[in-house]
Amino acid sequence: MDLSHPLDPFFFIPIDGLRFLGFECVIGIFASLIISIASSVFLFLNPSCSSCDLIMSTWLSLIATLRLVDLPIKAKVIYKIYTLSKRINHEDRRFMIRRLMDLVRSPLYFSQSVLNGFSFVVVVLGMMKMAVGGSSCEDQHFYQFCSSVIMTFAVRLVVGAANFKYEERKVMNRGMGEFHQFYKHGATLHEIEKVRLVEVNKENLGRLKDLCAICTEEFKEKDMVRMLGCSDSHNFHQDCIDRWLIQKDACPLCGVSIRTGRAK
Ligand SMILES: [Zn+2]
Ligand SMILES: [Zn+2]
Prior knowledge:
The protein is mainly α. The protein has helices at 13-45, 47-52, 54-87, 93-104, 107-133, 140-173, 176-183, 189-193, 202-205, 238-245, and strands at residues 197-199, 224-227, 235-237. The longest helix is centred in the N-terminal third of the chain and has 34 residues, at 54-87. The structure holds zinc ion (2 copies).
């Protein structure tokens, strides 16, 4: 697949993907900020409501805590998206898409998704409680406040869903599915970075007398070479082998996986 031409439909995938994730995280962090700060302030200023309606005030504290925990995680994801977007104009798009996919599959991103899912369940439970029994608190403001927290959550979900439909569909239309096929058997960049990398110099040039089997050129001083370790001679230029490994996680000569050390 030739990915070098800016007119090919995959050209925009990293841009669209980053825009989609970035927007999603920014509205998420705004909603979390509003909900956590407003709820904490409300509970602090109205301590009597807590004794009056124990269930809903516990619910409110739980929501405030969950959204507070969400803030540093989202901030970290936004920072990662920001650093990725700075690479966008000068990095090979294959690596860019791989980095994007690695981010979406990282424990960091997963933890914010789990937190969002859990908050969603808690909000729905609070909503059901409000719908069935209202609030036992005498203070009318407490009922209104809980309702507005639920409303803020609902608005955030609607905006998120609209963004998802708009950007995600655009990305999908441009062939994200095909990219999943393309990278399905590939290694992550983290895994690739763990493979031994050496710079060719006078001392090790003797040991690297074979050609790089991918570009069929001889190694020369100052070349960066990855030594896969499956055999003494299975060494390749970093640029040559990294492009290979993001598509297939095994040695191109003997098929030994860089992940498992076993032949595929
Ligand atoms: Zn090469
Ligand atoms: Zn090999």
